[in-house]
Amino acid sequence: MGTPEPDSEVMDKVVNLCKRRGIIFQSADIYGGFRSTYDYGPIGSLILRNVKDAWWKSMVQLRHDIVGLDASILSPPAVWEASGHLENFTDPLVDCKECNERFREDQLEDPSTCPACGATNSFTEARAFNLMFKTYAGPVEGSGHAVYLRPETAQGMFTNFKLVLETSRKKPPFGIAQVGKSFRNEITPGNFVFRTREFEQMEMEYFVPPEDADKWYKYWCEERMNWYIDLGIPEDQLRLRPHDEDELSHYSSGTSDVEYLFPWGWGELEGVANRGDYDLRQHSEHSGEKLTYFDPELGEHYIPHVIEPAAGATRSMMAFLLAAYDEETVNDDLRTVLRFDPRIAPYKIAVLPLSKKDTITPLANQVFDLVKDRWMADYDETQNIGKRYRRQDELGTPYCVTIDFDTLEDQAVTVRDRDTMEQDRVSIDRLVEYLSDRLP
Ligand code: GAP
């Protein structure tokens, strides 16, 4: 089977659904919107949390060789000098002298023609534009007070390497994982939340004996591909693409990207990089701290090499949304469904009392109380039941539990399956057991 064609219509539909259902909003919408920043609404904040939790669970909870970290976002120039970001974290920027629009030179389809106004040979010489956001700590603005918002979470893992090593009692191979915000002053943000100036990353630095680096690089490429597949991204919409020599970052001796087939074509979800000893060596030289591991068996110190799977949380969430989006015709009606894996679905269950009558509401609350501790559940009592089912389908809720007038007699509820739309009558006594068999 060949690669499926990217579906360009689906993008508009998903962006529209995101706004309509409280998943993702343009930031500062009431002020006309702030370009390239987005807010995650009541539903989107749940989905994003689920993506990050699934990553954290697979990286930290289910393994004894990886520990977590939550490092600061602000850091002094010394960190970025050592990491190489002050010098190398740049994009080539060109301005069109006719319309004054700015572009990344390496992203221009035709480097002699301005895509905004069509002028030819109107670009300035390319200059290196540093992508880091700079600000000042304290009340005085000045070079002695400059700080940077981190453009990646990774450096926190390197600067804390020694402290984590000492306090966690781990030894190579071991990893440090972190989830959090990063900031890049992207020249050409776009494609919804694919490339934004503020985004979230999920990164893990895996410290290994130098001679084992290649083995672990291959291991993490495979592990990370499988993570997306396990959570519901179809295998034929994913690929692992090794970087060409000229694409490699300043620190990397080998990188492969996990790519997803976005509606506009293949795009990176995650980079798995063999960073060698670059980071620990740099920070060691710049800070004067010895960032080595003493191997008692060999009786020697060495600088571990680093394998880094670096994923975007917000970008992955977008891939999960696109992959889950589905439409089908049911009784001449178009049904939109987000076929999320239950681990990604914002609500696992929706409790839907058929009426707001005094007799039904206490029972519906009783059902909500039964499930709420274990699963994120929605409670919705407005509109007709058909519309409420459609709404839950659009949110990707795997199970709807309806409390009706018969419930008063038989103490049973109707459970509707999102994907098959089949309904089971289940006694309230057995409801938790029934759902436990089907939900994580
Ligand atoms: N520490 C290595 C590093 O940061 P990267 O490939 O620059 O590597 C890792 O970033 C991941 O972070 C990317 O694969 C992508 O998913 C996400 N990412 C990077 N820049 C982004 C942006 N401007 N907007 C959204 N996500 C971004």
If you had to describe this structure to a student in words, what would you say it looks like?
There is one protein chain. The radius of gyration is 25 Å and the shape is globular. With 440 residues, the chain is an alpha+beta fold. The strands form 7 sheets. The protein has a 7-stranded mixed β-sheet, with helices on both faces. A 5-stranded mixed β-sheet has the order 21-20-22-23-24, with helices on both faces. The chain contains 13 helices and 24 strands. Bound molecules: glycyl-adenosine-5'-phosphate. Glycyl-adenosine-5'-phosphate is lined by residues 152, 154, 184, 186, 195-196, 199, 201, 203, 268-271, 308, 310-312, 314-315.
